[in-house]
Amino acid sequence: MSQRRKFIKQSLMGTALFIPGLESTVRPFSRKEINSKPLILSTWNHGLPANDAAIQRLKSGGSIIDAVEAGVKDTELDMDNLSVGLQGLPDREGITTLDASIMTGDGSCGSVAFVRQIKHPISLARAVMEKTPHVMLAGEGARQFAISEGFPLEKEELSPKAAEAYQEWKKTSQYKPIINIENHDTIGMIGMDANGNLAGSCTTSGLAYKMHGRVGDSPIIGAGLFVDNEVGAATATGLGESIIRICGAFLIVELMRQGRSPREACEEAVRRLISKNKNIKDIQAGFLAMNKDGEVGAFAVHPGFNYAQATLQENVLIDSKSHF
Ligand code: SD4
């Protein structure tokens, strides 16, 4: 566990705390949610600095899509995060492959899956959205598109932390596709600007030691991310296979469309996920949502999921409730 994560975990036991350098505070779960625009939410502890980056982008005149891109780009560069970006843990063959998606509330979306050597897959997903007639590019085709758009290709080598972890894993080469404390740091971010326009982004290196070619929920529009200006936005983290099976993010937005609050919709999605997946004790998944009125909700299968919530005034870390 990174020092920062340890620190934030410990902080949660206390009251609101200032985190030096992050302009952020940490507070325990609060039932009463903020109702303020703009609003940025993102998964896990690294959501705090990512939210700061997103809010900065809005303050400097960026749009909500600029903000959710800038926010998760921060995480894509975080060397402590072994689940996002090229420093993420590799697949079974020792190759790091990345998935990302981006969406705006008018239905525009783009994603990349199983892509190699690209430092900012979220920006590549945005380029797919804005510059191609398609929604999704995968693998070599995504890489070729990146080259044609002038994205630099990074050297294909594992970060020191990922290389060490991979060497350790190879001793047994046991594949256990479960989300545990060290395999859970995907960032999903959803945001709303001052005018109520919504956007979201999601980026990950996926599950450690996955099969080569495996794609998770994060680049699947409707699974890891869904945004609709008429209703709200949702994102997911956790075992991608379990989330894809229930179209998690889309399900939550549709439940909100029918009148559920974000929290109720996330809870219902967790119930659905539990009913459609075996071995639920080994599966962690967490959902995060906002509606167009700025109400926020989250829910997870197991304890441990948290999210960061930022307005112009504050950026706080909140523990999600869970089914178990
Ligand atoms: C995946 N959902 O590829 C991602 C993993 C994840 O936090 O969320 N990790 O299945």
UniProtKB/TrEMBL annotation:
InterPro entries: Ntn_hydrolases_N, Peptidase_T2. GO terms for molecular function: hydrolase activity, acting on carbon-nitrogen (but not peptide) bonds, in linear amides. The active site is at 186 (nucleophile). It comes from the Bacteria. Substrate binds at residues 214-217, 237-240. GO terms for cellular component: cytoplasm. The record marks 185-186 as: Cleavage. PANTHER family: L-ASPARAGINASE, N(4)-(BETA-N-ACETYLGLUCOSAMINYL)-L-ASPARAGINASE. This is N4-(Beta-N-acetylglucosaminyl)-L-asparaginase.
